[in-house]
Specification:
The protein is elongated. The protein has 485 residues and is an alpha/beta fold. The longest helix has 18 residues. The chain has eleven helices and 18 strands. Helices cover 22% and strands 19% of the residues. The two termini are 64 Å apart. Its cofactor is Mg(2+). Its EC number is 3.6.5.-. Belongs to the TRAFAC class OBG-HflX-like GTPase superfamily. OBG GTPase family.
Amino acid sequence: MSKFVDRVVLHVRAGKGGHGCASVHREKYKPLGGPDGGNGGNGGDVILEVDPNVHTLLDFHFHPHAKAGNGKPGEGGNRNGKQGEELLLKVPDGTVVMSTAGEVLADMVGAGYRFVAAQGGRGGLGNAALVSKARKAPGFALLGEEGQERDLVLELKSVADVGLVGFPSAGKSSLVSVLSAAKPKIADYPFTTLVPNLGVVQSGDTTFTVADVPGLIPGASEGRGLGLDFLRHLERCAVLAHVVDCATLEPGRDPISDVDALEAELAAYKPALAADAGLGELAERPRVVILNKADIPDADELAEFVLPEFAKRGWPVFKISAVTREGLRPLTFALAEMVRAYREAHPKAEPKRQIIRPIAKGDSGFRVIPDPEVEGGFIVQGERPERWVRQTQFDNDEAVGYLADRLARLGVEEELVRLGAEPGAPVTIGDVSFDWEPQISAGVEIMMTRRGVDPRLDQTDRISAAERKHASRVRRGLVSEDDEE
């Protein structure tokens, strides 16, 4: 038995970038032929794409984890690593992508629409790409970055022109079956329809879609019955059609009170997307009242009695029978005309273009703020310094010196001095904390010695890495100052 799923939580993880390679070309009679380490490949992206042949989120319900391929590391001989394979996931038209906090990230409408759900990590540069005047033979390479990882909420909203609204067993499924080639489940008990059904209707030169939404009851906008789950399938409908059961024998029910109850639920429901609200609130959409089951004598008499009341509200009213197909032809023409008028008033928007925004002039790309948890400490925030830290091999002094040079050129050293940072002040960038030591003379011209060594880090007055680690553990209360490493 098929299952309809219109809301899932998807865990996406992009591929990790490959590490750069630190290699020196060697051949006979040329033991040091220069650096030839290649770059690591970028990690693959996780991409969502609208496919008209996909109609449900069922695949993501059973397979909620999606991971793209990792980039391969670079190799010697100037060989770059292979790019990680991207993962392309097909989603239905009308899928809304949100964060777990409810922020709308993408409204995917239209075949071929793409959204990068998770960005692949950058591959690290090899030492051949790091050659400079000061570093003619770098003994280090940059690490690849981790791919983006996050949880997304996918919510499907049916893309239909006409939405059929009504109480359970009002005959909505029967109406869809006679207006189109759709074959929804039809039975003589309430809540037969548990999922929205879509049907395509042809009327003259106009083709439009009709959505049969599961039956609504009073309180649906607050979560009663099935209404809250499926009211969102009405958000994109240009026309709403009240299907009224004129043959109901339930006490306290009649066509007018049924429509009034449904109108109250539509008015209480608020679209989650601003784009959907652009169609107007549900209570303000064009209306059609369909008085169904006119093949029953008592129902036909009741329909004639309430016709003037609905006409006073300015709504088109049609008396039909889904069984005998009485009144279907004028109803179809009227719906087609209303859909045509909506399309003329709301032409299709042009495909969205990618907008590239350059960095504003004077924007340093980082900021330094006092650390609220560590006295005298500072936190450096910004995409570039945080990325540079993630790319650094901290067990390689030359790589640490290269990081210090990059931060100095960016202006981090000057900003720390301006804010009154003292030598040894704890500085945090991303997930890494270290003691700031301006005596390293970052950014100055240096004469490199053997590979993997930065002479600025060999000063005798500089505390060792083990001492820095011990001091950091003391600040965090993990050990006492008298404990030995």
